[in-house]
Amino acid sequence: MSMPPITIADAGLAGLTLGRCLKQKGIPSILLERVSSSPRYNYGITLHPWAYQPLLNVLQMDESSFRERLSIDASRGGMGSISADRLLTGVDTTPGTFRCHRGRLEQFLQEDQDIRWEHTIKEIETTPQKVIVRIQNEQAIESDVLIGTDGVHSQVRKSLAPDIQLKVLPFVVFNGKRRMSLDSFQNTIAPQMQSLSIIQCRREDVALQIAVNQYTATYIDVEYTYSRPARQNDPLHKPDRPILGATDIPEEFYAELQELEDLGQAYKEMFDVTKVREDRILHFLMRSTLGTEQEIKDLADRGVLLVGDAVHAMPLLGGEGGNNAMKDGVDLAEHIAAHGPQGIKTFSSARYERWRKGVEQSEQRLAEIHSPAKASL
């Protein structure tokens, strides 16, 4: 007898990886995604072999084809190169680690999946036999289990485990994106990046990062990050800001950029205040969370499992959220294939210690990034 479809809340990295691996094993799933099918992400993420190689094993795909398709510089024959010498922490840069284009990665994972776009979850009901998810259009979807992969602002978590709260860490982070002409990039940024896809430096406790998001024949998409620890009475640290407040950029941010000195040409170009004012800037909050083992078990007993950032969120800097989301998806698919949907009750207990250590280490790395040790350019 075939398994009934498993309901997955959200078509992000965890949900897409889980759904793709389940399909490969002959287990149907339905992914509920609140947004439309338009491409959502145009930025790079660092992918590690421990996260993507298990996926490729399931899909029976070779690594070179994967990287040639998804590296941020794939269009010019690159492989998303990263160098540990140009990073501020001991990030794992073992052979195979590369910068991957997030949007193309999700498009790759979406292939041949049953994704219900523009399906916003309105209500979740659990019974001893079923989990019932009601969508805004009043449609009800029933399944044996519900897998909540819906990220740091998880609606599943908020609805069924509201006591699992996000923690905002005491750091100030601003992220900008800029599209540059090929000539401008080659004259200002490329010499210092030396064919790498990401570089970082530090000035006292301020960390600066430049990363290429995408190469084309005529332009380059670049992003940059300015970050530091929060200070006393800090006008830039707003832990209680609303989600929509991410675009409210205080003048004090531009004043701090103006004070940066002794920067290499690439950093001078990217953090030039006049140019930054014209860019799309977002105020990031560094969030983390991890419910107790009992809270997660109680959910599993009701037929609901949270994975990825929905349950063990890591800060955007220093965290490995995307990698852990993919690893959760691959491993959960294996667990369900071996134990059936009810296997979710043992999956979380087996993973909990790894989740706990991952969140703890991500917070430590965030602090290390801003440690006022010797800076390098």
UniProtKB/TrEMBL annotation:
Pfam families: FAD_binding_3. InterPro entries: FAD-bd (IPR002938), FAD/NAD-bd_sf (IPR036188). This is FAD-binding domain-containing protein. Its cofactor is FAD. Keywords: FAD, Flavoprotein, Monooxygenase, Oxidoreductase. The keyword Disulfide bond does not apply. Belongs to the paxM FAD-dependent monooxygenase family. GO terms for molecular function: FAD binding; monooxygenase activity.
